[in-house]
Amino acid sequence: MRTKMVAGNWKMNKNLQEGVALATELKEAVKNPIGTPFIHLATVAELLKGSAIKVAAENCADHEKGAYTGEVSAEMVKSTGAEYVILGHSERRQYYAESYEMLAEKVRLALANGLKVIFCIGEVKEEREAGKQNEVVKAQLEGSVFGLSAEEWKNITLAYEPVWAIGTGLTATPAQAEEIHAYIRSLVAEKYGKEAAEDTTILYGGSCNEKNAAELFACPDIDGGLIGGAALVAEKFLAIIAAR
Ligand code: 13P
Q1: Ligand 1: which residue has its CA nearest to atom 9?
Q2: Which atom in ligand 1 lies closest to the alpha carbon of residue 120?
């Protein structure tokens, strides 16, 4: 049985005090990872200790340790009490030139350090318009995570986030999202078998909010959401969780 999940991604929002205030408001929400900036991790993880909320980093380094000024390793993330890391977000791919190979290494290091990975995939607008979304997500999976062992795969959650829907108010329709989620699950089945595919949690992200969440989450292959803007307001995030 796969886990239904609604995860938050705060991106580069909220200073430490604001982040602590938001986490405090969310404390009673069940089983939801929240992705926070690096500097919030230790404080928020301590605050949420004993609650069912898990803390996620939004990135980690592609090297184990050493002379990489300003980077934060998977081991450091784990040592804060965080349990997840979001990797492959389109903003990292687009603005920080994260390649398939770099992401494969980040995923490897995250798993080796005992973190679970929320791995993001999704096409840009031009690719959707050209009908290339399936080949894009296939290449992203093959390039960074399909080299994992079946055992490692158990710690991967996928998030399909069409780039054209992120922060734009343009949500994929439930039919569009379901179609590609089912395709993604079929790729996982080809690679890791039907049972593993059935157990894989695939989240939808991209302008998912308290109004459209229920309809999206009702689709058979959409197992929850990865929420950006609406995760910054406790009331909205809690309403999305309730729609799961
Ligand atoms: P929005 O919910 O703000 O569109 O962001 C989605 C996202 O990128 C989550 O990772």
Answers
A1: 228
A2: 10
Active-site residue list: 89, 161
| pLDDT computed for residue 29 by the predictor | 83
> What does the H/E/C string look like for the chain?
CCCCEEEEECCCCCCHHHHHHHHHHHCCCCCCEEEECHHHHHHHHHHCCCCCCEEEECCCCCCCCCCCCCCCCHHHHHHCCCCEEEECCHHHHHHCCCCHHHHHHHHHHHHHCCCEEEEEECCCHHHHHCCCHHHHHHHHHHHHCCCCCHHHHCCEEEEECCHHHCCCCCCCCHHHHHHHHHHHHHHHHHHHCHHHHHHCCEEECCCCCCCCHHHHHCCCCCCEEEECHHHHCHHHHHHHHHCC
Region 135-151: mean pLDDT is 98
User: What are the pocket residues of ligand 1 if the criterion is a CB atom closer than 6 Å to any ligand atom?
Assistant: 9, 89, 161, 166-167, 205-208, 226-230
Residue 243 is predicted with a pLDDT of 92
Q: State pLDDT tens for residues 187-196.
A: 999 999 999 9
Q: Which of 157, 226, 233 to probe ligand 1 with, by most ligand atoms within 8 A of CB? A: 226
Mean pLDDT value of segment 160-184 = 96
What digits encode the pLDDT tens for the residues 15-29?
999 999 999 999 988
Mutation choice for ligand 1 from 5, 6, 10, 11, CB with most ligand atoms inside 8 A: 11
Summarize pLDDT for 79-108 with one digit per residue, the tens: 999 999 999 999 999 999 999 999 999 999
Nearest ligand 1 atom to alpha carbon 206: 4
Predicted confidence at residue 1, as pLDDT, reads 81
